[in-house]
Amino acid sequence: MLRAGPTGKLQSRNPDALRLGLFESDAVLSPLPDRLELSRPDDWHLHLRDGAMLERVVGATARVFARAIVMPNLDPPVATTAQAEDYAARISAVVPDGVAFTPLMTLYLTGETSPEEIARATASPVVHAVKLYPKGATTNSSAGVEGLDALAPVLEAMERHDLPLLVHGESTAPGDDVFDRERIFLEGTLAPLVERYEGLRVVFEHITTADAAAFVAESSSRVGATITPQHLLLNRNAIFEGGIRPHHYCLPILKREGDREALVAAATRGDPSFFLGTDSAPHARHTKEAPCGCAGIYSAPVAIESYAEVFAEEDALQRLEGFASHHGADFYRLPRNEERIVLLREDWQGPESEGEGPESVEVFWAGRTFRYRFGGFVR
Ligand code: DOR
Ligand code: ZN
């Protein structure tokens, strides 16, 4: 457990967390285990892109994760079952040799999605969910939905076919404060949706606030949530640490320290409604370091290690496996992975970036020290 120090801040063993001002240094905490074994994890929220970027990033996820829920926000969007099947084939074609990785595909919900398409998606072995982007909320969301009323027949079909709805939960009215958009969406759209479609399984994706964590914890087991590494490790000060930090910009945007603490509590207490979803979202460096930089943080190369930091910080490493490897599979009604991985206690520096020049991609927590290293598979 983190403990409150004399100034009321939380104590930590990690110098990088200390540098960010989240924690204090004088903690005497129990030693960390040298070796952790867990079922191979899955990533329940991932952006793999397409073309050259796809080839670059897929290996970073497949090195650790057995499966991933792949977001459909390509341009044009992956809106039909046929497009999702093609995209799955393109992903599988670039998985490095000797690695087993299954992409779990999603459809992009648009004003054109039909109940028949939902039936086709359900019958397809590769499609596992439908993603709702409010129009204009984030990267490639211009084909997203403007209101849910017209989509009632589609949502009813999803309820009937038991196909989960994954939600980017942010309001989009231009006057809504960027830090309030998740709460406004939760109150005005998501809570009524969950109430109206009482059989629909819903994942509140990449939650960022104490309000969202409480809503999911209090909802029935048909409502789940993914939590990203950045929302567990950083608060909004990280966007402005000594200057503007485009590589800490993602959507939903980082929130207050109290929100971060609520997310950490939700992730680490063993509640099956919360599961790992990195939202790893690569953008070439020059598109982030720009006058109007893209939203998205590329965490795949250090993903499991980042979550291990959070659970180590909380003395909750014994609950990492549930969050990373069991809760999501159970929610999606897929078998848990039989393979097992090893994490080794060893200080190591994460990579700064992947690739060279302006097309390189900066990696989350660039160059910082992690205390667990991925140690391969248990043979
Ligand atoms: O920061 C984000 N990046 N949030 C999203 O919702 C989308 C993602 C992306 O695709 O780049
Ligand atoms: Zn995403």
Describe the structure.
It is a single chain. The protein is of the alpha/beta class. The protein has a single domain (40-337), classed as TIM Barrel. The protein is 31% helix and 18% strand. The chain is built from 12 helices and 15 strands. It has helices at 15-19, 51-62, 81-93, 115-123, 152-161, 181-196, 210-218, 229-233, 257-268, 285-288, 303-313, 320-332, and strands spanning 10-11, 23-24, 35-39, 43-46, 67-70, 102-108, 127-132, 165-167, 202-204, 223-227, 274-276, 340-349, 353-354, 361-362, 369-377. The strands form 4 sheets. It has an 8-stranded parallel sheet. Strand 5 (67-70), helix 3 (81-93) and strand 6 (102-108) form a beta-alpha-beta unit. Helix 4 (115-123) packs parallel to helix 5 (152-161). The longest helix is centred in the middle third of the chain and has 16 residues, at 181-196. The chain binds (4S)-2,6-dioxohexahydropyrimidine-4-carboxylic acid and zinc ion. Zinc ion is lined by residues 45, 47, 71, 279, 281.
Strand and helix layout:
Elements: E1 10-11, H1 15-19, E2 23-24, E3 35-39, E4 43-46, H2 51-62, E5 67-70, H3 81-93, E6 102-108, H4 115-123, E7 127-132, H5 152-161, E8 165-167, H6 181-196, E9 202-204, H7 210-218, E10 223-227, H8 229-233, H9 257-268, E11 274-276, H10 285-288, H11 303-313, H12 320-332, E12 340-349, E13 353-354, E14 361-362, E15 369-377
Parallel strand pairs: 1-2, 4-5, 5-6, 6-7, 7-8, 8-9, 9-10, 10-11
Antiparallel strand pairs: 3-12, 12-15, 13-14
Bound molecules: (4S)-2,6-dioxohexahydropyrimidine-4-carboxylic acid and zinc ion.
